[in-house]
Amino acid sequence: MNSIDYIKLAKKGEIDVIKNTKETINEIKKIDKDYNYFLILDDKLDKKTTKLKKGKLYGLPISIKDCLCVKDMESKAGSKILEGYDPVFDSTVVKKIRDEGGLIAGKTSQDVFGFGSFNTNVGIGYKIPKNPFDKNRATGGSSGGAAGITQKLSKPHIAISESTGGSIACPASYCGVYGFTPTYGLVSRYGLLDYANSMDKIGIMAKDIEDVALMLQVIAGHDDKDSTSSNVKIHNYTKQEKSKFKVAVIKESIGKGVEKEVIDNLKEKLGDIKYDLVSLPLTFKYSIQTYYLISMSEASTNLAKLCGMRYGQHGKLEEEFNEYFSKVRSKYFSKEAKRRIILGTFARMSGYRDAFYIKALKVRTKIIEEYKKLFSKYDLLVTPTMPNIAPKFSEINKMTPLQNYMMDIMTAGPNLAGFPHLSIPSGFSNEMPTGLMIVANHFNEKNMIDFAREIK
Ligand code: GLN
Q1: Is 279 tagged catalytic?
Q2: CATH number of the domain bearing residue 454
Q3: β-strand 275-278 against 247-250: which pairing, if any?
Q4: Does some domain include residue 331?
Q5: How far apart are CA 443 and CA 178, in angstroms?
Q6: Residue 355 domain flag
Q7: 28 Cα–ligand 1 center, Å
Q8: Which of 112, 118, 167 to mutate to test the pocket of ligand 1 (most atoms within 8 A of CB)?
Q9: Which of 46, 317, 318, 448 has the most CB atoms at less than 10 Å from its CB?
Q10: Which atom of ligand 1 is nearest to the CA of 114?
Q11: Ligand 1 atom closest to Cα of 143?
Q12: Ligand 1: which residue has its CA nearest to atom 10?
């Protein structure tokens, strides 16, 4: 049963919300013994069902990626350094969910601060989530917990997730669920533990496109608390309208380096939909470099506040301040966080700034222009979501950081440019799911959702 049908029945009293909540939490507990999708689970959630508003999400269990603040629930973006932080407020998205009668089930696993494509860069001492189809393989990242539980849970549920460079689309593809990332600014980021502010977007994972539309209806819209949140008109996403779209497939995305079955599944999924083959040469050549330079630059400034004085873990101050900061940061930041802090700081340093950070900003503008040209002719652009199926942990362990970063070849472009994108399950290869990604022009998420309904 999808969430929409569940909510209808719950409102009519034909489903017992207390019983359903208990059963959902129990099922999650059982799954988590083997799969490690949750960092925090509210096992008293059934007690919170009595005074629920009969809103759009009435009685529906919803999981929240750990990087979003939930009042009185440990929120640490998967990191060790923020362990023990219990926010005194709800992020705007969580508040909107509660206002519609949704139930916050807990916080899902992620790569620390979103730094990864496999959810293997977990905080020091935390467990790595496993792919729902094969425990020897990764879920994808950084939102692996959200994708895994969305696939594995038999009960109605929707996951709230976050993407900076592909963290929703990637795990959605590897775990065979829908992964929706809105236009930058459509959904408020208030209460998000930032990775890279100019690219972070809060989005959705679900098993059904109608659940995506329902949740978007709830969380989209302007918020005074987020100065980058947009004032655009909110569409009725839950109602299907248009069905004829001008579609193009990106040539570079179905060529060398992409597994054959991934390409075959994309073509099969599109079926008799007519499409042109078009090219995004600049984007495919430079988006990875540009994305990583900008994201690491922003991440390194964001993480500067976690120095052991005011936020995050503390130590004992016995030495000079700088030594103390280094001591605390060395102890609690993971290897990947350190790598990004060092590279990001380097890219912003005087003397290097023009050559790296500023240049990356210029290339970013060029990439946006390249997409915009195509959007003057086409409504939707299609690529595979990931070039491959979920890799095995043994394969990931052998990858260099650069090979790791290359995994984002399809997703870095739309994320850099703030375009909405949606990964939809496109089939299977070697018994593992593959994904197809639709990209639309800014604030055209409605077209994307309607198209997904069409090719369902
Ligand atoms: N794989 C990308 C990275 O490591 C994406 C992360 C994200 O979207 N949060 O930066």
Answers
A1: no
A2: 3.90.1300.10
A3: parallel
A4: no
A5: 19
A6: no
A7: 26
A8: 167
A9: 448
A10: 9
A11: 9
A12: 115
Helix and strand tally (H, E) in the chain?
15, 13
**For residue 376, what pLDDT is reported?**
98
284, with CB counted inside 10 A (0-12, 13-18, 19+), is: buried
Q: Residues, the chain, total?
A: 456
Nearest CA to 214 out of 8, 420, 435 is that of 8
Position 456 scores a pLDDT of 87
CA of 115 to the centre of ligand 1 (A): 5
113 CB within 6 A, ligand 1: no
Residue 63 inside a domain? The answer is: yes
Cis peptide before 142 (omega within 30 of 0): yes
Give a yes or no: residue 370 inside a domain: no
Place of tokens 């980058």: 228
Query: Which residues form the domain of 449?
Result: 1-273+379-456
Q: Name the amino acid, one letter, at 64.
A: I
Phi-psi region of 390 (alpha: psi -120 to 50; beta: other; left: phi over 0): beta
Per-residue pLDDT tens over the stretch 38-56: 999 999 999 999 889 999 9
Q: In total, how many domains does the chain have?
A: 1
- Rg over CA atoms, the chain: 21
Exactly one of 3, 63, 109, 142 is catalytic; name it.
142
Q: How far is the CA of 186 from the centre of ligand 1 (A)?
A: 20
β-pair partners for 106: 41, 63
The DSSP bridge partners found for residue 276 are: 248
Ligand 1 mean position to 203 CA, how many Å? 14
**Partners of 70 in the beta sheet?**
73
Residue 310 has what pLDDT?
87
State the catalytic residue, choosing from 56, 65, 80, 152. Answer: 65
Specify the residue with its C-alpha closest to ligand 1, atom 9.
Answer: 114
Question: From the candidates 79, 117, 163, 167, which is the catalytic residue?
Answer: 167
Whether the pLDDT of residue 16 is over 90: the answer is yes
pLDDT of residue 242: 72
Banded pLDDT at 243 (limits 50, 70, 90): confident
Query: Is residue 295 flagged as an active site residue?
Result: no
Q: H-helix or E-strand containing 173? A: helix 169-175
Do residues 368 and 441 touch, judged by C-beta distance below 8 A?
A: no
Q: Is the CB of 163 under 6 A from ligand 1?
A: yes
Active site (annotated) includes residue 287: no
